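Lab notebook, bench 4. We co-purified these components, and the gel suggests they stay together. Before we commit to crystallization screens, I want a quick structural picture of the whole thing.
Request: model the full complex, all chains together.
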Amino acid sequence: MEISVKQSYPIETDALTKYYGDFEAVRGLTMRVPKGSITGFLGQNGAGKSSTIRMLLGMSRPTRGNGRVLDFDIADEKQSIEIRKRVAYVGEDKRLYDYMTVRQMIDFTKAFYPGWRDDVEKKLLEEFRLPLDRPTKKLSKGMRTQTALLLAFARGAELLILDEPTEGLDPVMAEKLLELVVGAAADGATVFFSSHQIAEVEQIADRILLIDRGQLILDTTLESISADFRRVRGVYDVAPRPAALAIDGVQRVAVDGRIVSVMVSHNSVTIAERMKAESASAVEVLPMTLKEIVLESLKREDA
Amino acid sequence: MTDTGIGARVVVYYSTSTVTLFLKPNPASGVPIYLQLKEQIRHACETGALRPGDALPGIRALAESMVINPNTVARVYRELEQEGLLELRHGVGAFVASRGTTRWTAAKTGQMKAAQKAAKSFVQELRRRGIESDEIRRLVEAELASHDGRVPLVG
Amino acid sequence: MTRALVHKTWLETRTRFVVGVIVTLAVCGFFTLAHSWIESNWQRDLIEHPEYDNPAWFLRVMRDYPFYLYHFVYADFFQKIWVFLAVLLGIGGLQREAAHGTAAFTLSLPVSRAKLFITRALVAVTELFALAAIALLAIAIGSAIMRLPYPIDHGISHLATLFTGGLIFLAAALCLGEFVEGENTPVVIALGAIGLLYFVMQPYVDGAPLDWFAVPFAVPKLMAGPADITRAADIPWLGFIASLGAAGLLAVLGIRRTQRSDY
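Here is the predicted assembly.
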């Protein structure tokens, strides 16, 4: 029972913290990525997405806190190797060893993964028509990206960790990458990908984790966003007592003169009724898009 | 390529795969992707693009071609099965339901025609009262969002 | 997996290795093939310019062919090139990969950083060893062509001290590559250090006794070995072990550093 519970979260962190000198890049991040999901890891540039991903892969060490990937400890060097045997990584930087040809690059990478997918390699080679004997430094940027994608997706990994994978790609290549992600997910892989492109997250993800200044501020599903997230807006003659809005489901409250706008994650019906009961003269319930929710969540109180 | 006779040349792609039947969803539209896909499948059945017994694309193939989450496709197929539009045969795939559908389609088509009429007169009525298109859209959306209007818009 | 890593390191360093082979052949070839030409020039100088104040080693270099090779190849000119080649072969590592934008790819592979470091070290040591063998071969063949009798033991002994001393520079370069960020900064630092070392040591090239402040810089002396070794018994084993120890220490330092770095 214990095992099955753990296996259902390929990524788990507990109060994960990372300092770079005095700068606190990740501040007590606690999150879980469920098995079989495509989880979008959203946040502004510098929010701590890359720092988190680098810790998950053993590229940097946590200052404090714990993390487990596929039930291996991320801070233990031996276990980190076990993690990397089972994880494919694509970063924003898709440069390759410029002293290798495409073929050498493939053979090199293949040597590390017993579960290498020859079928995926073959399919992508045919699709991309990569010049196998050309040194990678003489490839166009597009071909370099295609090679990097082949090297990642043919690993046959059970978990994909992608760090801003579509950054700097043209729309066709970005869509191709997302298509590969979807294909890997259909094969049963769990996908964890960071992005600040809300549209692409909305397109393929089923779960959202939003971080800001190194902390998790939103953890939800896209299903819940369409079914439960609402903006409830009321017009008041007299500003309501703050306590009156302390209702389960209320996420954010914005007061602008007579208008009180509340972002709710669930319970919108009850909340709207309560607002009406609290002397709001007019109450309306509006749907919210992921973009609105993200922007609303990222609004800072001092702003 | 086909010469249309008016100087323009049209590129025609031929495909036997039902995958091409569906358009890529528009994440910016504000309509959840799973609803967009559901609507597209319903629409394809209504127009006869998909007929009883026709196979739908596999979950993987459809997810890859539309570049959406495979779980989303699976969910749509499941929900449409519950609604009686599709039939899921284990290990084989999804098919347009053979008997239920024809009836469903005919009934639904009639319903939709009636609904369209109602919507038309509703919009005309609001316009007559001087309500702008944007305002109408907002009212309808708000109404839909507030759980089938259980919460009155204006109290 | 190990094969793949070795192959990667080889592809990464082969251009530098080929440069090393060419330079070694050219320098060792030149000093053997040009011996009689150099010697006759000096004989003429000796006759035409009796007023020249010639250094002590001068006459011996002309009389004694092994000592001639000791002077030009093992103790001075080629030794400096040798040290440079050792550094050249040791360049690389994760900091350099970070500057190239490939560090994340390498670090995503299921391999420990210690293994990455050790593989690079072993490939570089092998390459350096190959260069020493090539130098010996070039000297032996060049001497044979010029019909200069040369005891091969002499060459083996001196190249052995040159090789083990070279390991210190190789290890230092490997180590610097983990400590210093950037693509070329480690190289610049290494070259600066070598320049300083030889600036301090130049007065002692011909066997002058070391001043106290020069003792810590005595690596070039160690690499040259005593001028007269020809038998295994003459090999300075203590220096040998000291070189290996220093190189090993630098390597351990490099490994610990690479294990602790954040990327």
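Chain A is about 35% helix and 30% strand. Worth comparing against the SEC data before the next meeting. Residues 171-186 of chain A form the longest helix (16 residues).
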